[in-house]
Amino acid sequence: MIKVLFICLGNICRSPMAETIFKHLVEQRGLEECFEVDSAGLIDYHEGEQADNRMRRHASMHGYHITHRSRPIELADFTHFDFIIGMDRHNIRALESMQPAGSCAQIMDMASFLRNHQADTVPDPYYGGDQGFEYVITLLEDACAALLDHLSDN
Ligand code: 4NP
Hints:
alpha/beta; binds 4-nitrophenyl phosphate; 40% helix; Rossmann fold; 4 strands
């Protein structure tokens, strides 16, 4: 079982979208028995909330249904999950500074998996408009497919 945790700041836009897209691809490939997939945030401000309405609306326009409720990352995640994947440099730096001794989790940058799009980050859409949410989905579909190829090859 490969355990994958997606991380963003609030866990209401990017990382629950990444979790949903990744799970969809895992199901399409019949790999449900091989993967555990979750998401979490660096802040607890939205704990217990559904994903942002705008993210859910754009997700449904692309055929996705986000069911995740926001939760903050906890230290136990660093020992439970094999791969912890941040959406931007701020996420990566925060994860690296939180990682406890003894954790073997690999912290990775989501943008590093992009194949068909050039971007060095999956940008925070929270304070922007519709285009930002569409762009997040475009990037995450690309990166999730490449990430799943990478993890299922190994
Ligand atoms: P996310 O977006 O990190 O993609 O979930 C954000 C959600 C909430 C906030 C910032 C970014 N916030 O400041 O509350």
